[in-house]
Write a structure and sequence with these properties.
- By secondary structure, this protein is of the alpha+beta class.
- Among the domains are: 53 residues, Phosphorylase Kinase, domain 1, CATH 3.30.200.210; 33 residues, no CATH class.
- It has 6 helices and 7 strands; from the N terminus they run βββααββαβαβαα.
- The termini are far apart.
- Bound molecules: iron/sulfur cluster.
């Protein structure tokens, strides 16, 4: 059976690389960069190329688990959601809205951040919400300002194709690190 190619966007970092996701018999079997995409033009770092085995790994978690008597046991989604809601309610009843917090990750989408902000502030009643800004990008912003004078990545993805010398730090994309001419 032919591998069907589907367009997608990599969710891992802020670069937003376009991906082609190859699906065969309902399973993801290969992932490559999308040619012509403005962010990566066919390239990717190592992360998405290594995704496919993750989807079929025998130890992949496929349903919620709840710890009972020190053992994790599988439960339905309804049970899991009730378990979390009951736990939240108990803490809120006993200690008030400032006793809970939400800490998001760099991979959440803007819409997810928006929903969590609404949920924590309007439903729970706390400002204890952090979506990666301070603990993730704050350090990068300080680095950008102290070394380059601006709080933003200063180069386009394709700058690498015409630069003669680059200093690159903390990048997990070996293809992006290759320099066409030596320094
Ligand atoms: S650089 Fe890597 S992790 Fe970031 S969006 Fe592109 S493929 Fe994904």
């Amino acid at each position: 059976m032919a591998v069907q190619q589907n367009k997608s966007t990599c969710p891992f970092c802020g670069l937003g690389c376009g991906l082609m996701v190859g699906v065969e018999q309902g399973k993801i079997v290969e992932i490559s960069g999308m040619k012509g995409h403005p962010a990566n033009n066919g390239d990717t770092c190592l992360l998405p190329r290594n995704y496919p085995p993750i989807f079929t790994d025998k130890d992949r978690l496929k349903q919620p688990m709840v710890r009972r008597n020190s053992r994790l046991v599988p439960v339905s989604w309804d049970e899991a959601i009730k378990h979390v809601a009951d736990g939240f309610k108990k803490i809120l009843d006993e200690h008030g809205p400032k006793s809970v917090a939400f800490y998001g990750g760099a991979i959440n989408l803007t819409e997810e951040y928006y929903l969590m902000n609404k949920f924590m502030k309007a439903a729970i009643g706390t400002n204890n919400i952090e979506c990666s800004t301070r603990l993730c990008m704050a350090s990068a912003a300080v680095g950008f300002i102290s070394t380059l004078g601006a709080d933003a990545p200063p180069a386009m993805r394709k700058s690498g194709s015409f630069s003669h010398c680059r200093l690159q730090h903390g990048c997990f994309n070996p293809r992006f690190v290759q320099t066409p001419q030596s320094c």
